[in-house]
Write a structure and sequence with these properties.
By secondary structure, the chain is mainly α. Helix content is 56%, strand content 12%. The protein has helices at residues 8-20, 23-35, 40-44, 51-63, 85-92, 96-100, 102-112; strands spanning 38-39, 67-72, 75-80. Strands 1-3-2 form a three-stranded antiparallel β-sheet. Helix 1 runs antiparallel to helix 4 (51-63).
Length: 121
C-alpha cells in the first residue's frame, strides 16, 4: 500500500500519534496546558536543547494540529489546541474494558496468592 492509497483520516491519526510519541513534545503540550500560550523562548527555557531543535518539535505538533502559532511582533507564540486529543480518546475507547478489568484481575491475584482478606490466613 502506498501513501497515496492511505485515507486522509488515517494519515491525520498517524501524525497525531507520532507527535505524541516523543517525550519532549508531550512536555511542550503539558507546559502549554498548565501555563497557557507562550513564546518560543519561554518554552525553550524548559529544555536543554537549542532553539532550532525545539522549533522542529513545535512544527511536528503544529502539523498534527496540537498547537497553533501566532506572531506577536518578532515573537511566535504557541497555544495548545486540544481538539485532536479527542481522536486519541476515541481510538482508546474500545480498549477501556481491558484496563478497567485489570483491577478485578489484581483482586483475583491477591486472593489466589493469599493476600489481604484471605480466609486461610
Amino acid at each position: 500500500m502506498t501513501a497515496i492509497d492511505v485515507p486522509e483520516d488515517r494519515l491525520r491519526e498517524d501524525r497525531l500519534f507520532s507527535a505524541l510519541a516523543n517525550p519532549t513534545r508531550r512536555e511542550v503540550l503539558r507546559l502549554l496546558r498548565v501555563k497557557g500560550p507562550q513564546p518560543v523562548q519561554r518554552l525553550a527555557d524548559h529544555f536543554d536543547m537549542r532553539r532550532p531543535s525545539l522549533s522542529e518539535h513545535l512544527k511536528v505538533l503544529r502539523e498534527a494540529g496540537l498547537v497553533s502559532e501566532r506572531r506577536k511582533g518578532r515573537e511566535r507564540h504557541y497555544r495548545l489546541e486540544a481538539g485532536p486529543l479527542s481522536e486519541v480518546q476515541h481510538w482508546l475507547g474500545p480498549y477501556e474494558r481491558f484496563w478497567r478489568g485489570m483491577g478485578d484481575l489484581e483482586d483475583l491475584r491477591g486472593l489466589l496468592d493469599g493476600g489481604p482478606g484471605d480466609a486461610g490466613a
